[in-house]
TrEMBL record:
It is found in: Cytoplasm. This is N-acetylneuraminate lyase. Keywords: Carbohydrate metabolism, Cytoplasm, Lyase, Schiff base. Pyruvate binds at T72, I232.
């Protein structure tokens, strides 16, 4: 006879199994633009009408993926309703123009983060990015993993990423240790956005099958040399051709050309 505990754990295992089977795959690598949020003049009302032409412009410049409600988009300054409406507008534009969409859901009280995680999954976005808890700041990889595991459980079919930006969050746990831990206990965890000038620690995060987005424009040249292949940088909204040129120069061994273009980008 099966005990109640056995039945419960079997149910949990089956739920996780079938959830994993239905999980969206995240295969993108390359340049992802963290989009700005536009407003109507001094009214401080979000300009949703600009989203579609903005998406069209970025695609014409060779950008194939977008991040919504990140630091560049100032999502943390918006209401939950505004963030959801911005996400919906970009979701429609990305579907129309064939662009990959990632949504940043953190930087809010936990119930709001959960609500936005569920909302993002309901829109079938390609990926979710999440900041750490910003008041009760996690000081260890274990505490950070625990928080993100709880959030990720509310969007189980969507690839989940952590947003590492310690200069803003003051959360600076050791990323290689955190990654090894998170990959074991968060079924939909796929990687991080790494926004830090510590290239040594960033390079230590690189591993086959793991997705690490660089978020620091000023070290692009060195990061490409170190093995980074995916990038989320504000300048991709303005001059993505410079980042393309740096990557191309480094790929063919033209280090001086890469350095020269990096200085131009900076």
């Amino acid at each position: 006879l099966c005990s109640s505990n056995t039945v419960y754990f079997s149910f949990v295992w089956l739920s996780q199994y079938f959830s994993g089977a239905a999980m969206k795959q995240f295969t993108f690598k390359g340049l992802m633009a963290p989009v700005f949020t536009a407003y109507h003049g001094s009214s401080q009302q979000v300009n949703y009408e600009i989203v579609d032409p903005y998406a069209k412009l970025l695609k014409s410049k060779g950008v194939a993926a977008l991040l919504v409600n990140g630091t560049t988009g100032e999502g943390m300054l918006q209401t939950v309703q505004e963030r959801k409406q911005v996400t919906e507008a970009w979701s429609a534009a990305c579907s129309k123009h064939g662009l990959v969409l990632m949504v940043q859901i953190g930087g809010a009280p936990y119930p709001d983060v959960v609500e936005m995680a569920r909302h993002a999954e309901g829109l079938a976005v390609d990926g979710v990015l999440c900041l750490p808890e910003l008041y009760f700041k996690p000081k260890t990889p274990e505490k950070l993993t625990e928080y993100l595991k709880n959030v990720a459980a509310h969007c189980p079919e969507t690839p989940f990423f952590y947003y590492h930006i310690p200069m803003f969050t003051d959360v600076n746990v050791h990323m290689p240790t955190f990654l090894n831990m998170a990959e074991k206990v968060i079924p939909n965890f796929r990687g991080i956005k790494y926004t830090s000038g510590d290239l040594d620690q960033g390079s230590a995060c690189l591993k086959p099958g793991r997705i690490i987005f660089l978020g620091a424009d000023s070290i692009l040249c060195g990061a490409v040399a170190a093995g980074f292949d995916s990038f989320i940088m504000t300048t991709l909204n303005i001059c993505p051709e410079l980042s393309d040129k740096i990557i191309a120069c480094m790929a063919k061994g033209d280090v001086e050309g890469g350095r020269k273009t990096q200085r131009e980008l900076n």
